[in-house]
Amino acid sequence: MANLADRLKLLSQPVNRQLLKATRRGIEKESLRITSNGFLAQTPHPQQLGSKLTHPYITTDYSEALLEFITPAFTDIDTTLGFQHDLHRFTLQHLENEFLWVNSMPCILTGDENIPIAYYGESNIGKMKYIYREGLAHRYGKAMQTIAGIHYNFSLAPEIWSLLGDYEQTSSDITNQNDLQSNCYLNLIRNFRRLSWLLMYLFGASPAVCRSFFSHTNHQLQDFDDYTVYLPYATSLRMSDLGYQNNAQSGLNICYNTLPTYIESLEHAMQTPFPAYEKIGLTKNGRYLQLNTNILQIENEYYNAIRPKRTTQSGERPARALHARGIEYIEVRCLDLNPFDPIGISASQAAFMDVFLTYCALAESPAITTPECEAINHNFTRVVLEGRKPELQLQKQGKSTTLTDWAKEIIASLMPIAVLLDDAHDSNRHQESLKLELQKIENPEQTPSGQLLRSLSEHQCSFSEYTLIQSKQHAETFKHAPLTPETQKELQVLVNKSLQQQAEIEAAPQEAFETFLAKYYA
Questions:
Q1: What is the pTM (predicted TM-score) of this model?
Q2: Percentage helix, strand, coil for the chain under 3-state DSSP, each rounded to 5
Q3: Which of 58, 109, 328, 501 could form a disulfide with 310, with the two C-beta atoms 3.0–4.6 Å apart?
Q4: Complete domains list, the chain, with CATH
Q5: Please, are residues 183 and 322 in contact by the beta-carbon 8 Å criterion?
Q6: Cα Rg for the chain, rounded, in angstroms?
């Protein structure tokens, strides 16, 4: 395998540099619907937004109130973000006295009984989605499922992998394009895991949470005020063990060194019973409580910071799609909503993500050993809980180093990638994004987590009070930038089409649900 400098030299040739313009990114953004006084909305998913089962861009995640906005994958950052802005504008038109919560940690909660699970209708696929969420409630509690985030989907042009494979005379055990591409994306994932703590420092925006989140859960956070708890140096409580971590998953050893071992790890977790989930039971009084009693109900239950992905066909499981056709793109799942941006992510952050992920793809990426895996987990946990702590020490290649020193080294390593991307796009936005993030490294108070805590103190507001003010301000921003008539018409067509598609699905003959589920797992 060539080193990073050789790869950059190859890609810097004018004919090859143009391939970087074909990089694609899509954004999935979650937001809770809330009432005008900051409580979780109890209303059904607005029919004016279409069917959450079949709409390609506006759906729900766990709760009926947890909206999810999905863009296609575009080759232009501004187009991707513009699409998100349009989805938000359209949605806010149809929310009566409701708003979109702009922080990853949830609004005021009043108990599990007031967190409605998303309902997808009476078709088999709709039932499966509901039962899966019912299982999440029994396994982790409903409050955990109200946490929101940004998912950043990313892929480089397939021609880049072919170019590198030909240049480096890839070994004979790589027999086709899919295998070559999958190996390259696994290289990206391993490097991402090594360095993802930096994203938590730069973009973590959830150092505090409303006290109501812990109505039935013990915690070790500190009191900020009567209604808010926090950790003084935390960057992302969302990505701490307050989130989706649990005893069943903590014992998993998911391997990213090869695609077969990754798939095998997931399949094993889906087939291995877990005593605590067996105790819950599969059904009660003829009603499903969860899809199965194994460590994972489905692959998506494994909550990790990054996933290899392949577009699935109807009824196809993600692991089977990966096995059949290899990795198509990666999904970064560790990004908090930025409460200071109307859609939760800025153009500068997207540019930085493209630089960071391109670097992870092109840099050398040896297999991760067990000691290195332990160091990776240690670094990630330290940064989410106390990333802004002065002189915080991380583990790098068996030695201790300060977060600040290592972060500056990484930014320096990213700069040649930024220059290359700017040359390809005839811009300077990628280099400017690095300069902006470097300021956060030099001054932790400029990070989103630092800004949030400072704002709470300056405004003498609780977390919920301040976030409600921000949510209403962002709603006003969208209202003052209405959709074009053409976009309005296009989105309305999608609403009508999605409602019709769900009606057709439910009108079609349905086999017994048990048979449907057995076929899915088969």
A1: 0.96
A2: 50, 15, 35
A3: 328
A4: 24-346+449-521 (3.30.590.20)
A5: no
A6: 23
